[in-house]
Amino acid sequence: MTKTYTIITFGCQMNENDSEKLAGMLEQMGYSPCENDKTADIIIINTCSVRANADDKFFGTLGEYKAVKKNSPKTVIAVCGCMMQQEVFRNEIKEKYRFVDIIFGTHNISEFPRLLKEYEGSGKRVTEVLEDTDYIPENLPCKRQFIHKAFVSITFGCDNFCSYCIVPYTRGREKSRKPEDIIAEIESLSQNGCKEVLLLGQNVNSYGKGLETPFSFARLLKEVDKIEALERIRFMTSHPKDLSNEVIEAIAQGKKICKNIHLPVQSGSDRILKLMNRHYNRDYYISLVERIRKAIPEVTISTDIIVGFPTETEEDFLDTLDIVEKCSFDSAFTFIYSPRIGTMAAAMEGQIPEDTVKERFNRLVAKMQDILSEKAKEYENTVQEIIADGISRNNPEIMSGRTPSNKLVNFKGNCRVGDSVKVRITEAKTYYLYGEMIQ
Questions:
Q1: Number of helices followed by number of strands (H, E) in the chain
Q2: By C-alpha distance, which of 272, 279, 346, 276 is closest to 312?
Q3: What pLDDT score was predicted for residue 51?
Q4: Strands, DSSP E only, in 53-146?
Q5: pLDDT of residue 395
Q6: I need a labelling partner for 61 at 20 to 30 A (CA). Which of 311, 389, 415, 426 fits?
Q7: How many domains does the chain have?
Q8: Residue 140, in any domain of the structure
Q9: pLDDT tens for residues 377-388?
């Protein structure tokens, strides 16, 4: 009888990509995916530690498997990912969740088959977490979520040490994959039906660190743009301080590079940006956005914004509202500040009261909704190129996909997942578009 597995993933696309690799290794070992996560032979929870709600969701989910382990002692339960890189969380699992069999971190995903074998041989809990590593495993088996699009990691880790962010401590120092390995992976994907790739890194703009032969992100974009079968190239995330003119030029000239840039601003206040250790000020950021839009008129720019950073005043927050208006973002991921143990910001005095933060957050969301509603109207009665991603979550008779500008589109039409189609936009909502396929 074939053994089964299930993987529960929290967090970002980097974690999703890691889970795809874990699935690939398990299937290479003869396991098959299980739809019912409570009956799988192996259950892996891949954790995120960027915000407190991710921690809470993880522990809530993990608690559900105590009964599973009690009823089926042979079920293997493993926990990995960013939370496991932090000793405080590892210790909590060891002490309070004794039914967890395998604990490993972000730097030794490739070692999971060995760790599983070790556990099966001894029947005792296996814990292996590396603080960091320079080793980048290549050619790992990978069970992709989709055939027509794929995540491709180009860098791992981060050297920026923003004062609110735990990533440098959980993902390690920044290191880049060799360009030939990246290009070979994308060429192989494109030959097997992949039309769109998302190049991943905590800061893709600084790609090239640690390589023996200098190779910039701009050059990498140009090389990937040459891959014939590929239709779209996306990337994230870009740090404003490292977005060079060469990268802007590569995007402007690229035939397949989506004219969409995710450019986290985090705050519009110079004082807060300095406390965040972001290495730019509001004037620089605004001028960068202006430079991008001048070079790429059709570009869309999305961002991240944190509300309630320690010591944030009403004046600081008004600066954030002002930069949102000046930059007129096409979309924004808005977050309430979440203290992360081990970061500089968590130890700062001047933590903002919860009711104040929520009130500011609601004002920011309202401001963004006004901007997004106006921008969405620009899509009405236009024809957009869509790659169909699947069936709409809300209506099984409707397909969904995204424009090159990364706008979600729900549309009527008879097509297959992965098909490239033309859609006439008939109605624009704040967060998505609606249309009808015309080809």
A1: 13, 19
A2: 272
A3: 81
A4: 76-81, 102-104, 126-128
A5: 82
A6: 389
A7: 4
A8: no
A9: 999 999 999 999
